[in-house]
Amino acid sequence: MNKVILKVGGMTCSACSSGLEKYLNKQDGIKSASVNLVLSNVLIEYDDTLNIKRIEEFIKKSGFESLGIYKEEKEIKNSKDKIFLIIFGILSLLVLYISMSHMFKLKEIPYLNIKYPINYSITLFILTIPFIIYGKDIFISGIKNIIHKTPNMDTLVTIGVLSSLIYSIYNMIMVLKGSSNNVHNLYFESVAIIIFFIKLGRFIDNKSKEKTKEAIKELVTITPDSALIKIGDKEKEVTIDEVKKGDILICKPGMKIAVDGIITKGYSHIDEAFVTGESSKVKKTIDNKVVAGSINIDGYIEYKAEKIGKDSTISNIVKLVVEATNTKTKAQKLADTISSYFIPSIIIIALLTFIGYIILGYKVNEALVSFVTVLVVACPCALGLATPLAIVVSEGLCAKNGILVKSSEILENACKVDTVIFDKTGTLTYGTLKVSKIYNYSKYSDLDLLSEVSLIESKSTHPISSAFKDYNSKLDIEVKDFKNIPGIGLKAIVNNKKIYIGNSKLIKELNINNTHVSDEDDLTKLGNSIVYIIEDKDIIGLVGVKDIVRNSAKDTIKELKKMNKNVIMLTGDNKNTAKIIARSIGIDNVISEVYPSDKVDVIKKLIKENKKVMMVGDGINDAPSLVTATIGVSVNGGTDIAIDSADVILMNDDLKNVTDLISISNMTLRNIKQNLFWAFFYNACMIPIAIGLLKPFNISMNPMFGGLAMMISSLTVVFNALRLKKWRRK
């Protein structure tokens, strides 16, 4: 299955996005299409029967324009829109003054007032023509979407404005023929002001939307435009595009790392805050990875280019954030469904209003005013923006704080979690293990025994293997038939002997009589993880390995308990060791000595009990558990982002990001509910007024104020969503 994000032109409201989405999802070969109104793009999953060119044809047939593969770039300032708004703002004031000065007893412009019907009509008509040209994109979009049976906000405005325009032209012709009374039935000013307000609203709306994307833009612009490449003994400055995988690059103090790579010479402290959200500087030396965009603080380093362009960490982060904003929450799906029926319903309501006025004996011009007002005021934009704006702001906020969320549904559901399960090794602890004590029951020296273990463990990815890296074997020994036994340990053939390394379950698995239980108990009482060394069927060694608890673990558990979350430690480690670690950080519920498959069973059981389970693990060994949980959170230190199996990736070692995620989720859900309330409240109030149901109470509205109200409703939602940016960790 292939995946692509395309930039789409011509979308102006939620009816556009839902209409395009519905159309694309009906096409053969497209598995799923999700349109993002805020970012003006569409995420499409498709099979091999299609290609991008064919998909772009689908977009064109649906009434929109594909602008190619979506790429978040530096914002290009366009002053034309602002200049046009100023010009048409002045023209709007002139139109309003000419058409309404007599109503407010202001000084009238000689020969251009209502006392001179012909001059008055022609002047307003001439002044309205530039507005028609200015709003041609609205009319083109509105008509195009009628043809493609996907009516949108532009459709409502087009019908309303053109109705007013045609009716006004008719009355102007009657004035020219000598019927002066028809001058009171001109609505040229409504045409002009509605177009101006819509343009003004979209300008402010677009500016506000740009603010919601700031965090994504910061990620994109964080990498430098050039790099220092080492050629022999010389250095040369080149553009990023000229760097190839395997090139040796130079980074001096104060410079940014140009591409993802591995240090080959030197050491320094690196600022990776933009990726991890962690303010403290990280010491990096030979063989350590560096990430593009991070800042070299105080040392000279040389590094080999590993990941460039779309393969880089930053590109993967941006891709994940953008893809996440294209997924739909339940609230968004509901809003999109309502929007898809909303526009046709409003057109019917407007027509019924017009017919009703005529039947009740009102004049055509009064019926037309109410008809146009209903069309203009009933904007579904606020409804369509309510959820995606909040999601885009929150996704950016999470990314800025080192939390990568792969789906917007996670932001909607994280605060609903009632059970948080932590793996121990590499999650609650750093996974930085050290050998604390060894019981040697063999004929080998301690060093030779540990060297042999190190040789076998070097082929494993389990965190415990790191405890033996200081004993790298200098022995010329070949390891054969290496095998990982999930949840138990390792097996290999060394010097024609079967060597097993693992926990106490290994003894039971091999059916060996364990005469060293007391030694094991002594180690576990001190908080050690247990590693047995077995040669053939004989226990030749017992090693105690200690881990370091993460600094933030205790505070995180305390905060989760304050949030009324049930916290569980789920580990394959020894029961006593697990309890000692759990007790030190405040976890009461411990499930230990479990296989990876057992972890999955524990989570499944909790989910069957209607629990919302968040599993926090290392992203590699805990992959099945992360996938099974309601929400899987990976503490992986920013590596292997693209292939991680979790729903959420924590880019640093700070477990407080778990509570941050829940806090941001809670705030996001509350913000979405507020936005939806205001969107529904606006339409519930404005449509009855536009119809004229409150006229008996002297409450009415004309199309101009309808356009203004429509703009204000959208801005209310936009500014409320932007409040999310004020979130700070408690």
Brief sketch in words of this structure:
The chain is an alpha+beta fold. Helices cover 47% and strands 19% of the residues. It contains 24 helices and 26 strands.
Total domain units: 5
How many extended strands?
Answer: 26
Strand order of the largest sheet: 14-26-25-24-15-22-23
Q: Residue-averaged pLDDT, rounded?
A: 83
Strand content: 15-25%
Main pleated-sheet profile = 7 strands, mixed
Report the oligomer.
single chain
Name the structural class. Answer: alpha+beta
Low-confidence parts: none
Tertiary shape = elongated
Please tell me how large the radius of gyration is. Answer: 33 Å
- First-to-last CA distance: 42 Å
Individual helix count: 24
Helix percent band = 40-55%
Describe the model:
There is one protein chain. The protein is α+β, with helices and mostly antiparallel strands. It folds into five domains: 2-71, Alpha-Beta Plaits (2-Layer Sandwich), CATH 3.30.70; 130-214 and 322-390 and 672-725, no CATH class; 224-311, Calcium-transporting ATPase, cytoplasmic transduction domain A, CATH 2.70.150; 402-428 and 549-665, Rossmann fold (3-Layer(aba) Sandwich), CATH 3.40.50.1000; 434-546, Calcium-transporting ATPase, cytoplasmic domain N. Helices cover 47% and strands 19% of the residues. The protein has 24 helices and 26 strands. The chain has a seven-stranded mixed beta sheet with strand order 14-26-25-24-15-22-23, with helices on both faces. Strands 6-5-7-13-8-11 form a six-stranded antiparallel beta sheet, with no helix packed on it. Helix 3 runs antiparallel to helix 4 (117-134) and helix 13 (381-400) runs antiparallel to helix 23. The mean pLDDT is 83.
